[in-house]
Amino acid sequence: MSYYWEGKHKIYIGTGRIKPANPRVWRPEISEKLIRYYEKAREAIEAKRRTLITRTLDGTVYAFVGNNYGRRRWVVVIKTHSPEFEVWEGWCSITTVYSAFMRSDACAFLTQKPRKQFKDGKAEDVLSTLRAMGFKADDLPKGLASSLAVAKLLDG
User: Fold this and answer.
1) What is the tens place of the pLDDT at every residue in 7-54?
2) Which long-range contacts (CB under 8 A, 24 or more apart) does 111-117 make?
């Protein structure tokens, strides 16, 4: 086991006391397992075309994953209960995204909802946000496309 020092040692001149920095333990076997897990998670995200669908008792939850930004990913979560829907948009930690895709559970995003909720839930706003993320209207799941079409008709 190797120890690396994280931070800086502090030396107090007046008292002569030395406060060491915190040691950080590096374990290669754990690092390798995490690297393999992250690779599998990235493959799962791309295999599912950055879209995750989970049916619930009261509707369906759709999660769309966009670009990386450091340790976070841009996520749009749509929960439909026809013809109404709720939409959340924002940045989720990459571990939340990986965990949701590895378990094929879009409901995981509902417990840690992204920050911004669309107040009026306009279908046009949802479609423009998904377009900005790189999703085309033709590629949307049929259930979601029909819910958005009905909502757009009802909005007038």
Assistant:
1) 677 778 888 887 877 776 677 777 788 889 889 988 988 888 899 999
2) 113/77, 113/88, 114/75, 114/76, 114/77, 114/88, 114/89, 114/90, 115/88, 115/89, 115/90, 115/91, 116/88, 116/89, 116/90, 117/86, 117/87, 117/88, 117/89
